[in-house]
Amino acid sequence: MTSWLLGRSSRILIHQQQQLHKGPFLNYNSSCSSFRSTEPFRCRDALPGKNSSPTLFRFWRHESTKAEAQLELEQDVTEDDPKQIIDFPGGKVGFTSEMRFISESPQKRVPCYRVLDGNGEILKYSDYVQVGKEMGVKMYSDMVTLQTMDSIFYEVQRQGRISFYLTQMGEEAVNIASAAALSPDDIILPQYREPGVLLWRGFTLQQFVHQCFGNTHDFGKGRQMPIHYGSNKHNYFTVSSPIATQLPQAVGAAYSLKMDGKSACAVTFCGDGATSEGDFHAAMNFAAVMEAPVVFICRNNGWAISTPVEDQFRSDGIVVKGKAYGIWSIRVDGNDALAVYSAVHTAREIAIREKRPVLIEALTYRVGHHSTSDDSTKYRGTGEIEYWKTARNPVNRFKRWVERNDWWSDKDELELRSSVRKQLMHAIQVAEKAQKPPLEDLFSDVYDQLPSNLQEQERLLRKTIQKHPKDYPSDVPL
Amino acid sequence: MKGQAYGVRSIGDGNDAPAIYSAIQAARQMAITEERPILIEALTYRVGHHTTSDDSTKYRPANEIEWWRLTRDPVARFRKWIEKNGWWNDMAESQLINNLRQQARYTSLNPLIDDNWIPF
């Protein structure tokens, strides 16, 4: 018996190599399918043999046949008998006599949806949502603005004028194109590398600068590190540093929108690193089960700080995780603005119309360091960085497309870059002169009225400052 | 499908004892020889209540429970197979059940008599 089983195992392994599982991965484009997953289990009205129904009687006979088939372990049934099924909670499952293990990863990876080739030309037979001149020019302008903002803020941090910064370099298309595809009513729960969405929604450059400087004009009143933007007015939840916390929150927000009958969805962003957090599991599972209208956009930029994706998971990236939870998903070229725009536009429609979650994995690359606290040349080759910075640059690629449409010129480019730079320089001067928030703001806004424990803390803090005035920043009003 | 989402090889089976035995043996071989994880989804059914604190007829129909308890009973199914092989019969079944009942009765009446006796 033992040798037989071992032999069978060997044969199964060989079989495994030859016939890896190639499950159908749903790559949803513009066309809409009305297909929904199997209806939940419904108990039959009566037991076989206790009912004269011909259907049930036939089932009873098939049951006997199946039982006999199950007993013939050494017999190989290459074709699954469609009549041999188990009526299981969650739906019918077919039986097989083949001991076939589903591969950990399909031989062929899930393909990546794209529209523009490297030269900024629309590929033949591309299935995409049209973008007109006005939209195209605004998208490109915001990508350039984001790029310029990043380079200037990075330098400002290096000069010690702000404490921290984090760039979007290389991921401008995911930022701007996804924002462009959404409605202002859609609620955004960002990670931290998506200020482009807020920019698109009208957050001013001055407001970005105020937040980074943490002055009295900062909506967060200086209580957050730079880049932790938030704005009620723009339906943009304040950035939360802990990884993945925004994901289950997005599901709750989406469910709320559904209950209110709103024609809007929640849209939440995360990096590839967030998919290794427990919150990702809870969010995906709740989203599917509660049928929440939420779009998950995962910026898979290949690196979770210094951990490359191959050391993070052995699955085929993030797109396959959607199926595990019962969520439609698609893999998109994150550096192709038109592909991102089309995928997000369609995902949003699916989420709202069908009241279901959708997962988008945007393949992109983090050209900059993780943050100003990081030097990424310590853990990845400069050649890799240069390749993504130049050959696969999303801004340049989209520029070629808008130029080819005659919507943009070199003159426009020079004017835009010069204008944005001036606006930023001016905004920085204004922000640096503004006052810091007062000490009392450290305790406000959590409760309508300050509870006694916080009152005591404030009293103690003020007493300590009086004793040791030189140990506290002189520019913070008491 | 969750196995593939995490990069883990997987297979499904359930109330079929030889199928489970075969799958686990093969999985064990793979895990050890290839130094990799394996996921097995065993499709089965909880015939009893969750615990003595639960009454499962409150949230699932009685005939669903009966269907799994009678028609898809894994013990009865395996018994048919070993009987067909000539390894088991009614007499052996009766002897086993009587023996177990006696042990259970003895143990419940004399819980502290033999500390070294290993409960089955």
UniProtKB/TrEMBL annotation, chain A:
Family listed: Belongs to the BCKDHA family.
Biological process annotations from GO: branched-chain amino acid catabolic process
Organism listed in the record: Glycine max (Soybean)
Oligomeric and partner information: Heterotetramer of alpha and beta chains.
UniProt keyword annotation of Cytoplasm present: no
Gene3D superfamilies hit by this protein: 3.40.50.970
Protein EC: 1.2.4.4
Cofactors required: thiamine diphosphate
Name this protein carries in UniProt: 3-methyl-2-oxobutanoate dehydrogenase (2-methylpropanoyl-transferring)
UniProtKB/TrEMBL annotation, chain B:
GO molecular function: oxidoreductase activity, acting on the aldehyde or oxo group of donors, disulfide as acceptor
Keywords: Oxidoreductase
UniProt-listed Pfam families: E1_dh
Domain of life of the organism encoding this protein: Eukaryota
Domain Dehydrogenase E1 component as annotated: residue spans: 3-102
ATP-binding in keyword set: no
Record-linked SUPFAM superfamilies: Thiamin diphosphate-binding fold (THDP-binding)
InterPro entries: Alpha-ketoacid_DH_E1_comp, DH_E1, THDP-binding
Coiled coil: none
Keyword Oxidoreductase assigned: yes
UniProt-recorded name of the protein: Dehydrogenase E1 component domain-containing protein
